[in-house]
């Protein structure tokens, strides 16, 4: 029995224009930056090329990739003298390339973790401010701390005394 599946949409060509949603723009930047660095790394390995890429995110953060290093490639470019360049041996070059790829991957992962922690910190700060604005006695009783419970108890006892002392409407 042959199953008939609908053909998938596959990869769709997207219109190249500015992404309006800030969150979607940031996600796209992160993914495409990683892809760009990977392609540059592949170019270095396959062709022996030296590349340097410096990218600034929409938030103004800088990200760089360089093989062998950004500084080496930029210095070579600025000096304009290929005579000063000493080509590394293929064994050292491939080992260095693997190390650079691993370090760039770790760097990207750490940056992603940092961004996630910053977002988490912003959310926690929002929650802290919201809870500060909320009156403690309006919180669910199981969320109150010992100090708040003691205050609540004292307030309830004070209220009970005031109710007992206040004349009833029927007595007025």
From TrEMBL:
Its main location: nucleus. GO terms for molecular function: DNA-binding transcription factor activity, RNA polymerase II-specific; protein dimerization activity; RNA polymerase II cis-regulatory region sequence-specific DNA binding. Residues 9-69 form the MADS-box domain. SUPFAM superfamilies: SRF-like. InterPro entries: MEF2-like_N, TF_MADSbox, TF_MADSbox_sf. Keywords: Coiled coil, DNA-binding, Nucleus, Transcription, Transcription regulation. One of its GO terms (biological process) is positive regulation of transcription by RNA polymerase II. Residues 100-166 form a coiled coil. It is found in: Nucleus. SMART domains: MADS. GO terms for cellular component: nucleus. It comes from the Eukaryota. This is Transcription factor. It comes from Macleaya cordata (Five-seeded plume-poppy).
